[in-house]
Amino acid sequence: MDGCLFCQIAKKEIPAAVVYEDDTLIAFKDIFPQAPVHLLLIPKAHCSGLADLTPETAAAAARIPQVAARLAAEHGVEASGWRLLSNNGADAGQTVFHLHFHLLGGKPLGGKLCL
Ligand code: 5GP
Ligand code: ZN
Hints:
This protein is an alpha+beta fold. Helices cover 22% and strands 22% of the residues. The protein contains three helices and five strands.
């Protein structure tokens, strides 16, 4: 989608530290990491969030947990633990309106999902 930051990253129009890519997914390091491991996993095709899935983006998004587990292992947090989450909408704190999942790990992340 025109003007979408993560579409531009997926198309390599804007640089990012890409850690995984296949036909329909791409993962890259968060530019403002909140943990030693902080990756973003996105479908390459645009959708704004989980309420906006199409068959194409749903099929890509369904593969994200498996790719996240592989990336967690590759980034050394498989044993220590990691978190996969997606913010959807204003109250959740979503700031980039292209569906993405945060993979966080490398430190104790705390027990609270909601402050
Ligand atoms: P949200 O708040 O929407 O769940 O997460 C958006 C994430 O995108 C934030 O963690 C933010 O740091 C990250 N981010 C914003 N702009 C960029 C960018 O240009 N490059 C990368 N790699 N991450 C970004
Ligand atoms: Zn987009």
